[in-house]
Each structure stands twice: as structure tokens, then as C-alpha cells.
Amino acid sequence: MNNTKLSWQDAQVFLAVAEHQSFSAAAKVLGVAQPTISRHIQQLEGNLKQQLFERGKHGAKATEAAIKLMPAAEQMAKWAAEFNRQALGVGKAVSGVVKIAASPGVAVEQLAPFAARLLTLEPDITLEISSSIDHIDLTRGGADVAIRTQYPNESELVVMHRASSQPIVVASQAYADSVKQPCTWQDLKWVTWSSPYLNVTPRPILEKLIDNFEPVFSSDDYLVQKAAVISGVGAMIVGKPIGFESPNFKNSGLVEIDIGVTIPPAEFYIVCAKSMQQVPRVRVVIERLIEVLEDQG
Description:
By secondary structure, this protein is α/β, with parallel strands linked by helices. The chain has three domains: 8-89, Winged helix-like DNA-binding domain superfamily/Winged helix DNA-binding domain (Arc Repressor Mutant, subunit A); 96-163 and 266-296, D-Maltodextrin-Binding Protein, domain 2 (3-Layer(aba) Sandwich); 167-256, D-Maltodextrin-Binding Protein, domain 2. 41% of the residues lie in helices and 21% in strands. The protein is built from ten helices and twelve strands. The protein has helices at residues 8-20, 23-30, 34-48, 64-89, 104-121, 173-177, 203-209, 222-230, 247-250, 280-296, and strands at 53-56, 59-62, 96-102, 125-131, 145-148, 157-165, 167-172, 191-193, 217-219, 236-239, 254-256, 266-273. It is globular, with a radius of gyration of 23 Å. 30% of the residues are buried.
């Protein structure tokens, strides 16, 4: 490599292509035209006198030179995200958008009901929920807050609260009436995750508890699973929703099924980047979420 200095824009374009392995996908993420990405990478390669990507019909593959650049580019991205966060937090009232990343189950059963509560308490704050199985990188601004089931190892992150959710088995009223309660795990027809999420809870639990486990219905989408259960296909395990005792849940078409045992609570963590924990809008949302979770407990 030579002594060419890379700008944040260089790192941003480089990372987008490297992560998505595609010039067109990088262009879509960055909101520019594909030729702009191509020209930028060609200029960067010329300045560095190194080929960074092998172009082909299947996309763009990072070369050894590109792989060596990745850690430095990622660090630039983290610092740029932190700068933006600090700038957004200076001189602002408690208002704006707060992005929360969570698994689909948590997003549906915990955060969606929480949004209604937050709207009455903090009407100037808007939630944006990213529902995904995969972790989103908080250090690079992918979200302001995350709900994680594993304690984070990243030094740039801080755990703001540790809590737990009580898993329950739910089904439609018609399906619940068709089984004798309390019932066993084997008595029920199960709805759960399909490929590529066969290792996502609660499917591994069901496979461990039930010999030769085969679901009656599976999907890679949580809401599709829930819709199938509401339709009477079978039962599923969910984290007890916020507002479980309210008429809203009772009118959802789901009821709890007694399986004769209490499922162990599932721990989770409210996490944010250290640079975000004092940003007013983020701090207020976290505090309000903690209040609701403690009320549920």
C-alpha cells in the first residue's frame, strides 16, 4: 500500500461494496447510481495501486488487499456514526426518531404494544423498529438501541437493563378447546420457525422435548406463524406480550394453553452504544421501556 489518505466517503463506499458483495446493492444502500459506485471504487483502486474487488457475474468479491483494509474502514465507520450521534444529541429537545433493533418475537409482542404506551407519554418521540433475526451493528449506527438475548461482548456497547420474559404457549380458542388441559408437549401440534432459522428459539427447545419433532406448520416469518396459530392450525410459544391481561390481547384470537409446567423465563438485555446512552431521546425511550417491563414483571 502507499501513503494515500482515505476519506470517510472512500470508506463508506468501500464498506458498502464489501458487505453486500455487489456494486448495485451498495448503490441502493447509499442512495446513488451504480456507475457512481463503480467510478469511486476504480478511483480508489487507482490511488492505492491495488485491486480491491474481483468483478464477476455473481457480484464483487473482496481481494486480499481489501480484506486488509476492512478493520480500518470499519473503525472509520464507527467514529463517523458516533460523531453523528453526538451531533444529533446536542441542543435537542426530547423529540425525534429512536431506532430499536429486536428479534421478530420481541418486536411484535413487546415493542409494538410499547409504542402505543410511549405515544401517550412522549408524543414527540417516534419509534422505528427493525425486526430481524440477525444482530444489527449499533456501533455503526444501524440502530440506537437493541434488545438482545445474549450479553454483548463489544467494548463499545453498554447494557442499560437486564430483564426477562415469561414464555407461554398460545393457540386459538377453538384449538385450545380441542385439547385436554393440562396437556403435554407431545399433545400439541406446533407452529414454529422454518429454514434458514431452524436454530432460532423455540424450535431447538421443541426438538429437544419431543422425539422426532415435526411441526404442523413452519415459516421464516414470525407474523405468518402467528397468523397460522390464530387461524387454528396449532400452538406456538411466545414471550408473554405487553398487555397480556388487557382486552386487546383477549380480542386477538389467542388464549394461553396449560401445558402443566412453567417454561423458564428468557433473559434479554437492553443495549446501546456508549456514545448514545446520554442522548436525551434515547435515554427517555430506554427509561420508559424499563418502566413498562418492570410493571409487567
